[in-house]
UniProtKB/TrEMBL annotation, chain A:
Family to which this protein belongs: Belongs to the glycosyltransferase 2 family.
Domain Glycosyltransferase 2-like as annotated: residue spans: 244-461
Name assigned to this protein: Cellulose synthase catalytic subunit [UDP-forming]
Gene Ontology terms: biological process: cellulose biosynthetic process; UDP-alpha-D-glucose metabolic process
Subcellular location: Cell inner membrane
Cofactor: Mg(2+)
Gene3D superfamilies xref list: predicted glycosyltransferase like domains, Spore Coat Polysaccharide Biosynthesis Protein SpsA, Chain A
Organism the protein comes from: Alteromonas hispanica
Statement: the UniProt record of this protein carries the keyword Cell membrane: yes
EC number: 2.4.1.12
Known catalytic reactions: [(1->4)-beta-D-glucosyl](n) + UDP-alpha-D-glucose = [(1->4)-beta-D-glucosyl](n+1) + UDP + H(+)
TrEMBL record, chain B:
Name used for this protein in its record: Cyclic di-GMP-binding protein
GO CC, one annotated term: plasma membrane
Pathways involved: Glycan metabolism; bacterial cellulose biosynthesis
Topology of the protein relative to the lipid bilayer: Single-pass membrane protein
Species the sequence originates in: Alteromonas hispanica
The organism's place on the tree of life at top rank: Bacteria
Quaternary organization: Tightly associated with the cellulose synthase catalytic subunit.
Amino acid sequence: MDNSQHERLIFKERYVSVVLIACLLLGAFLLAPMDAIGQLFASSIVILTIGWCSKEARQTQKYKNFFRVLALVLGTALTTRYLLWRGLYTLTYTDLISAIAVWLLFIAEIYAGVTSVLGAIVNAFPLNRPLLTLKGINTEGLPSVDVMIPTYNEDVDILEVTIRAAKVLDYPKDKLFIHLLDDGGTDQKINAKDETAASKAKARRIKLQKLCEKHNITYHTRAKNEFAKAGNVNSAINNTRSDLIVILDADHVPTSDFLDRTVPWMLKNDNVFLVQTPHFMANPDPVERNYFSAFTRMPSENDMFYGTIQKGLDYWGSSFFCGSAALMRRAHLELVGGISGESITEDAETALDLHKLGYESVYVDRPMVSGLAPETFDAFIQQRMRWAQGMTQILLLKKPFKSEGLKWYQRVGYMSSIMFWLFPFARIIFLLMPLAYLVFGLQVYHASMLEILAYTIPHVIATYMISTMLFGRTRWPLVSEIYEILQCAFTLKALIKVFLKPRAPSFVVTPKGESLDKTFVSPLASVFYWLIFILLFAFFTGVIKFFSDPLTRELTVVVMLWNGFNLLLLLSVLSVLLERKQVRSQARLPATNNVVIRTIKGNAWVGDLVDLSIGGARMRLKGEGALFSEEATLTAWCQPLNKNVHLPVKVLNYDSKLSLLRVQFTPCTEREHSEIVAFALADSRRWMSFQRRRTRAITYWYGAKHVLSVGLKPAFLHFMHALEKMAKKISHKISSAKE
Amino acid sequence: MKKIYPTLLMSLLLAFTVQAETSTYRLTDFFAGESIIRLEGKADSLDFAIPLSSIADVKEAVLTLDVVSSRALIEKRSQLVVRFNNATIGQIRFDPARPSLISEVKVPNALWRDGFNTLTLEVSQHYANQCVDGSAPELWSEVNMYNSTLQISTTNNVSNFTFDKLNGFFNPGIGGVRAVSLVTATDTEDDIKQRTLSLVSQGLALRNQYQPLAIQHATFPEGYVLPELRDTTNQSWTDKNIQRYERSAWYTTQVRKNQDTLLGNIKSITEPLHVLVGTAASLSPVLSDTQVDSIDGPYLNTQVTPAFSIGDRVIIPSTYRLIVSGITTEDVHKAAEALAVMDDSINMVSQISVLSLSGMDATRMQKHHIAAPDNTYTFQDLGISSAQFRDEGDFSKRASFMLPADFYVPENASVGLLLNFGYGAGNGPGTVLNVKVNDELIHGLALDNPNGQVFKNYKLSVPARYLKGGVNNIDFNVTLRAPLAGVPCDEVAGKHLVFQLENSSAIELPDAGHVAVQPNLALFGETGYPLARFESAPASTIVIPSQDFIDSALTLSAKLAQVVKAPLLNMSITSEMPEDMKGSAIILGTPESLSQVQQTEFTTAIEATKKWSYRLQNSLHNRIRNATQDMSFKAMKIDGNIVQKSDLGPQAILTAHANPQSEDTLFILAAQTAELLNERVNDLVSLSMWGQLAGDFFAWSDDNSPSLVMQVSETYEIGESDDAWLQLRLWLSNNPWYWLIGFVVLVFIVSLLIYLLLKRRNQKVQDTW
């Protein structure tokens, strides 16, 4: 270490000491006693300041990052002040049961406060990396790449789309090797005792081998299904040789520029082991489809993670592997024995292991892989349970908070990501705690109305304001609450299992591409019916308490508002449980390409695409009143292929008033199939444009109003559905009685 | 000798066969509720107590009732029954033709008892002979308690004046004295004037409990001038007569009020009892040599002085006198201390020599009757008795207890009430218990178990902010209703109904700080704060500009002792304005004398020129605006002062300010002259006026109601100076701006430092691209 480095280190240490001293002083200020009126006055000013700072932070201006930090420090200070006040003055109880309830609530609040502070640190300064490209780099020196597509039970159709897209990756063909890793046709599966299963596995192996042969890619399988996806990938790693490895889930379709945008980061820094890109979901998850019906207008669930949090983690050098849509360096992977398999979230675990060794990760915020979100609520819950269990396994088995090799901020980053998944504990407490007071009369929150106004309300408002500032574009208000409520009952059970037996959970593949040919109520709905019933009961008990106990009216009103808020959210989630019929097998996403429609007779029309999928397209034609023959050709510029494509289409419908033409692709040749995939799914600019369109800034009140307004209608639908079910049963009984 | 004894006997007879004293009291003097009470339903009643001093013998008592009854009441079955100590003394028939009546009822002398006598007004009201609906609105009658009177003639029954009779003289009941003179030698020691007189006043006032006691100070002349024996030409000042004269309380006819100049008017003491205070030496002109010789330390004596009469003419009447004396001034003070704390009833003697006193700790005394925070008290500990209610009707039980005047709790603190109560079987609908804390309803419970129920440790958690420093009241209002018979014109009698509240019920007080918002005359009136405190008993002073004001000062100190329910041992009266005015003080004076007091910092100033705050004007302006409901002119909210030159007129003004020289409160009590001030102080300490003290500016000119009550000054807190945390809390609570500025500066610094760190890291990351 030279002198200048040593001096810099000393300066840094002193600087950090000053920051810590200032923080301690601030903490002392927060501890300073003051009556509620004074606190209310101070809080009001602080809230106004946060509002101003967060507004400035969202403007494009020189000091926006400073305002962002200022708002975060103010918000964190209010949260800290609230928790200090709760801990010092309000934890009063008279008996053991009250004590348990009081402490449970306080622990849940501490959890919420800690995750909020960790979130503030992580997202304080999101990193915006420039877009790099391979253009201009000598192809001779480029590293070879193995594209690995692990599969277990996915449809061949899904796989074929992914393979076709992988084939059009913009990368020297002699350095690009595509591998299908089949875990559904292993020797173990083929030789299973269950003959039906064995024959199915055998058939699958043959089918996939033919598919690989057709597309000239390598088919891999292995003897045993050990360590699930991690084992499958590791098996392939042992049998391949390229410098870099791309892992794509079976349904993850890459755009042609995936390698063009990611490989340069590997070339720039040999220490980089991972270049992660966002998972762009081409279809709505059950919440988006059933609840909001606004997939194209409001941010998707994972936009918050990939659009904000990963960028924050990237700043702190702790963006992690998300299982797919990532480029990894073989040399580094081999150092840790390939993909880690101790937990069922092998991706984050692998990243943690390599971060511990001092290697770096990069996050490129450009959607270059489109995947499928789980279609049903059941599948959605299954996926989330795996993530929650896996992250908890990492917490328990790898203990990132004290992992050697990790910098403090990387620990904060991992802990922030992991702690989030413990939300079911807190959410259940927040949901049920009003009952402790309203039904059982336990005073779990020992505070006066004035104190609630001075401490609790400012803390809640500040939390929402900070959340809106950090995630306003990528997450609408109350959406997080709805997702958490939906998952909490199921993931809580799964988490308890992990805490009891950290190594017990096994990898379960998330079902994707399920078809929904009719509307039905999710089989998981009963938990929510019970919760609603309990909260309604608490509500009515609260009404009685309000009239019978004038002494505690203020508190009763506050708790009833809390309970009412929970009830409103629960009623809202009913809509998610009403699985709506899905008309198309592929979700159509907005598109804006210029196209030409040409009939067999030689007539041609010019138009602009409105939406597009690999199944078909909708376009607005220019010109008036036109008649079409059933068969036609769609011609458009295909950026991934860098040429015009001529795709055979079948006209389904023409709306002459709106000049909207709906067509279905009818590819006949392999080339046409591949061109459709390249045209529809391999252009990352389209995903970018789509994502920008739905991650627009809205006001808090607009978002909250929208979320709540669409939430109550389904309660009525559920009621109607139950009535319908009952009527059917009665008519069935009557008819059987007649017989 | 033979001649002397008949003369002495005659003198005594003449002295004590004085004519009975007749007084007329309004019934509102005995009843704290509304001046008109309404009795409703088929049967209703009202009880109230009439206290009678033990030294009073009732010669005649006539109760005059002013009653109005509903015209709907039928004559034969509707009546007002008057009971006295449970004996029926009158039955007044309601006549629909004569709904308004004034009736006189004689209260038999034999029914009177020492202490509290219960007068019951009970009505039975019917609008028909059968099937009367007990809740019918026409079943009512009203008693005007203000117009109704009790005329009572009493005589004093004390012949042998011993200490156990002292409680009879100083007694809140009828026959008790309401004024007393403290008589000292003209040149009595300053220490006695400053400390002892105040303590004697307090000791006597404490016996009077809540009844005000006007204290007057007088001095006896150093020598006497024998009065002319007019109309007794056959008599002359023989040696024997002179000896008899000397044995009498001759000085009571020659006392002076103005001691400073010795030019004050010679006056007579008219009260039946007076107190001699002073050292043996200073009292020697008025005591016999034997008595002076018997004083060998702190000395208390009760005496009946013989009358001096010549023939039929009583020249010096017989009087009762209490002597507080000693060899030294310290002895006298010790005797006064003993007088203040002694239990009269066990001292059936007339002379006490105090050998020693222990436990005379001012702080302990002031807090002995106050419930201490962070403690649990049963009702019994607080002197609250159990209550049992029977029969149908509305009942209430008030549990009163004192909290420290500076009781200060955080917002979320709560008080636990652990109630032990029960009710019997067979209650009807509408049987309920309501609990109120300081008039705030906190809990209601329907007593609807047909088999009755008993509750043990029934817990109510009451926010501590419902309690306040000073007197707190918990009211248990119980309504007992008989079950419905279900048959028309048939009712279940409610004799079986019973509710019981046990005095084993308890109150759990939270921990509290000791801080009070000042200036607050209401708190001063209720608790004596800040002159009397819970945590400490700092020295407090009543400053008078001259001895002309000593009566006011003594009366005020006596009232404060009644308020505090304990003697204020550290209170002194001084006639010199201290240069360094530390602690709490009451400054009495006239506008001229108050010019010595630096009042420039006060919002209002009473000097030769007066400074009135605009807020007073605002109040007047806004009061008229509200009264006339003329909203065409805006509410006045302006700050400022008017400086004017004028008299105070007949009114007196009591103001409270932050003491500019210490963290305490300064009270200023002024009237135009010393005599006027004394009159107004006597008005102020009256039951009707003292309870109306409020704000920090209080003006009055009679004993009915104040002419103006206002909060003029900015408030501030005083309290525990040793609790730095509490002090910080108060300071920050009053100055949140300071906290906010500090907070914002720190947040800015922290944010800036963090921002620079983050920016630096960002730059470092970008450098690698």
